[in-house]
Amino acid sequence: MGPEGLRGLACGCGKKVSKQISMISRDRKTSRKAGLVGRSNPARGFWLLGLIALLACLCAVSVTVGTRDVSWPDIGSALSGHVDNIGQAAVAVRIPRTLLAILAGAALGLAGAIMQGVTRNPLADPGILGVNMGASLAVVVGVAWFGITSAEAYIWSAILGAGCAAVFVYTIGSLGRGGATPLKLALSGTATSVAFASMVIAVVLPRNDIAGGIRSWQIGGVGGATFERIMPVLPFLAVGFAISLLSARKLNSLALGDELAAGLGENVALARAVASLGAILLCGATTAVCGPIAFLGLVVPHLCRLLVGVDHRWLLPFSAIGGAGLLLAADIVGRIVARPAELDVGIVTALLGAPVFIAIVRRQRVREL
């Protein structure tokens, strides 16, 4: 190769290196703007304390605000266990409702972060991927065809339905060239949700004896919560929370890509299965007691990434606390906007989540997913 050829080769290599450097610089600027890098542990700790304080304030508001105005003496008496008048009884009803909103919101927020980490899909959500609707269909079939009535039967049916739906959606999304791409998973999950929703209507339609209760439950809400309804679901939520939080390091490895994660010694299939199991337990148990609540698992992890970045060791607990706060806030809004009636929390989260979903799709430019 002559001098001209060497000069051209050097020029081409220089241009390629320059292009790569500019791309890296641009990616870093984008990540910094989105809050994905440069987060120190003290800053994350500050945000964590702030979220906990906000959740505590929302708990106080939830107990004091509702369709009925209650005086401060009645609030204090109700918190002490007295239910001597209507005001104190109203506050006593709000206490388990607040607890259920916290548990359900934390479960759905954490499950959403897990699903986005497992599938590496920014659109992943228990509702969009069909998991919630699979749990809903299993419960409806159990009630209509097998006459289940116990809380344990509801929970096991919902978990089984959620697991089958997750496997089905992932299998469908894995077919064809390229495997389980984010876009194929989102499309297969959306189609599955629509199909399951139609099947729920088909099962309920001829059963007028259960239609009213099923339709009310399907909207998704925390109204009518009691400690008797909450207690059976606590063991399932506890196991789901433990599995999900312990999967943080594995999700960080999966975020690097399957090949690199395997090269680092990670069992990719096992890591995905264990993390998914935690999300399925959380989604199934929450759906059994609250009904299918959409979009919460989509919105919360994206908001939390702006605060703490993409490290799942921080993202998962933030998503749990953020989900609890957001669902509790949505429940409070639902009590206020339609007074003296109430707006179910599932409607409020859908109104909030739909614009965020559209914004995420536009930002990601679906064709690039």
TrEMBL record:
User: Under the cellular component aspect of Gene Ontology, which terms does the record hold?
Assistant: plasma membrane
Broad class of the protein's primary localization: membrane
Question: Which CDD domains does the UniProt record give?
Answer: TM_ABC_iron-siderophores_like
Pfam families reported in the protein's UniProt record: FecCD
UniProt KW keywords: Cell membrane, Membrane, Plasmid, Transmembrane, Transmembrane helix, Transport
What residue ranges are annotated as transmembrane?
Answer: 46-65, 98-115, 127-148, 154-173, 185-205, 230-248, 269-294, 314-333, 345-362
What SUPFAM superfamilies does UniProt report for this protein, alphabetically? ABC transporter involved in vitamin B12 uptake, BtuC
Q: Which Gene3D superfamilies match?
A: ABC transporter involved in vitamin B12 uptake, BtuC (1.10.3470.10)
InterPro entries in the record, alphabetically?
A: ABC_BtuC-like, ABC_transptr_permease_BtuC
GO molecular-function annotation terms?
transmembrane transporter activity
Membrane topology per the entry is:
Multi-pass membrane protein
Where does it reside?
Answer: Cell membrane
Residues spanning the signal sequence: none
What Gene Ontology biological process does one annotation of this record name? siderophore-iron import into cell
Q: Which PANTHER family match?
A: FE(3+) DICITRATE TRANSPORT SYSTEM PERMEASE PROTEIN FECC-RELATED (PTHR30472:SF1), FERRIC ENTEROBACTIN TRANSPORT SYSTEM PERMEASE PROTEIN (PTHR30472)
Family, as annotated:
Belongs to the binding-protein-dependent transport system permease family. FecCD subfamily.
Report what the protein is called.
Answer: Iron ABC transporter permease
Q: Which organism is it from?
A: Rhizobium grahamii
